[in-house]
Each structure stands twice: as structure tokens, then as C-alpha cells.
Amino acid sequence: MSTNEHTPDTLPDDLQPSHGADEYQIPNNDKRKLAGYLYLLTGSIFIFLFVLFSNSALINSGFLIAGIGICLFGTYNLLAATKCEIDESDALQIAETELGFDIGPCSAQLMWRGLRSRPVWRILGYSSEPIPSQRAVLLIDANTAEVLEAVVEENPEDWDASTKQTA
């Protein structure tokens, strides 16, 4: 290699910005159904063993109690297995429709709410003007696309002060 040749610095393939940029799949509570069925099967086996071998020295009432508890937990898993029908872009479109103004800077977060851990999108959004005049927080059910809560207010933040400091 001669000294006149210049080799530019390059990033390895796994550090390229496009690496791993495939569409992100949001977690889905629907996977709880499989766990629920497995818990019900296991609990049923425990109850079945207690009924068949209750006179055995190895099987006692703990099998019955554990079987009932595991079956109850399996039933909870089946009840809590709610599918996420909308993704964050759908949630943002629903938020814009509900608010009546275009959303500029925003944040969308998937969270779980209530005893059944229902998937809910939490949206924090500002209006799309250069200095946003409004802000809003919405909770949107990820299964039914229903707006559960919406709070809209005038933007109390002083964005003029922050633009003066950076100028």
C-alpha cells in the first residue's frame, strides 16, 4: 500500500444507522393466552392427582390447594389476554382527530392499566405551531381505539425564553 492512498474511516456494518431499523413490533398481551392454558392444564393435573391418589403418602391437600390456585391464575391470564389492535401511528391519528388540531412534538408510550392490564397508549402532544399554543395528554385503549381520557390546555411553558437563551 502506498502512502498516497487514503482509506476513509468507515463504521462496521452492525453500527450503521440503518442496521436494525426494521419496523418495531409492540409487545402484545395476546401471548398470555398460551400461559393461561398451560396454567389451567398444570392446575388440572394437580387436582386430578389429588382426586386419584388422595390416600397416598406423597399426595396431600396441598395438591388440591395448589391446583385451585394455579387454575385461578390461569383464568386471570386468559381474561387479561387483550390484543393490541392499534400501533403508535394509529394512536396519534386518533389523538389528532379527538383534539381537533395537528400534533407537532409528541410522545407515545404503551402502558398497561387496571386489574386486567389492558394495553393503553399514553400520548403527550403539543400543537404543531413553531411555538406550540396547546398541549394535551390522552389515554387511548389499544384494543378498542376508544379515547379513555383527554386533557387539553393552553401551553403554560415559556418557549420564548428558551429560544432567547440559545440564540
How would you sum up this structure, described in words?
The protein is α+β, with helices and mostly antiparallel strands. It has two domains: 29-80; 88-166, Nuclear Transport Factor 2, Chain: A. It is 37% helix and 22% strand. The chain is built from four helices and four strands, in the order H-H-H-E-E-E-E-H. It starts with 31 loop residues before the first helix and ends with a helix. The model has no long low-confidence stretch (mean pLDDT 84).
Strand content: 15-25%
Lateral arrangement of strands in the main beta sheet:
1-2-3-4
Reported for the largest beta sheet, the result is:
4 strands, antiparallel
Q: In total, how many beta strands?
A: 4
Q: Assign an overall shape.
A: flat
How many structural domains in the coordinates?
Answer: 2
Secondary structure elements and pairings:
Elements: H1 32-52, H2 61-80, H3 88-99, E1 103-113, E2 118-127, E3 134-141, E4 147-154, H4 159-166
Antiparallel strand pairs: 1-2, 2-3, 3-4
